[in-house]
Automatic annotation (TrEMBL):
Pfam families assigned to the protein according to its UniProt record, in alphabetical order: MerR_1
Superkingdom of the source species: Bacteria
One MF annotation (Gene Ontology) recorded for this entry: DNA-binding transcription factor activity
Source species of the chain: Arenivirga flava
Classification via Gene3D superfamilies: 1.10.1660.10
UniProt entry keywords in alphabetical sequence: Coiled coil, DNA-binding
Protein name per its UniProtKB record: Transcriptional regulator
Length: 145
């Protein structure tokens, strides 16, 4: 089984992460204690930082240079993380809604009912009417859909 590497993969020991973030390792330990940047841990309890952690450390340094105190920086990071999670959840819900609308029985495709009765029969997307004499009506997406 092959593991996929992404921005959250724990790659860097504290010394390397500190060098990448241009900080002292003790500063990283302090941020860990404060819960501002919490790295993953190995089985031996060593800290392992991801690229996302390093980016957050750099953001902390930038905000600190702009004059924000640690509590202000912590709150900004908390809100940014919450915003990221909410945007991901919105994308999930939009995808689920789109799939629901597209797969709803009879939501977009209809066929004329049996001869002489004049009814309309909803069809599942991708299915064909039972008889070749039936007429299929498709209602496209749009403001009136």
């Amino acid at each position: 089984m092959e593991e996929r590497m992404d921005e959250n993969s724990p790659l860097f020991a504290i010394a390397v992460a500190a060098e990448l973030a241009e900080m002292h390792p003790q500063t990283l330990r302090q941020y860990d204690r404060l819960g501002m940047v919490v790295p993953q841990r190995t089985a031996g309890k060593s800290r392992r930082y991801s690229m996302r952690d390093v980016a957050q450390l750099r953001e902390i340094a930038r905000l600190g240079h702009e004059g924000l105190n640690l509590e202000g920086i912590r709150r900004i990071l908390e809100l940014e993380n919450e915003n990221t999670e909410l945007r991901a959840r919105v994308r999930q819900l939009e995808t689920a809604l789109e799939e629901e609308v597209l797969n709803r029985p009879g939501s977009r495709v209809f066929a004329a009912g049996p001869e002489g009765r004049g009814g309309v029969v909803p069809l599942r997307q991708g299915t064909r009417p039972a008889r070749s004499t039936q007429v299929v009506v498709w209602r496209p997406f749009g403001p009136d859909a």
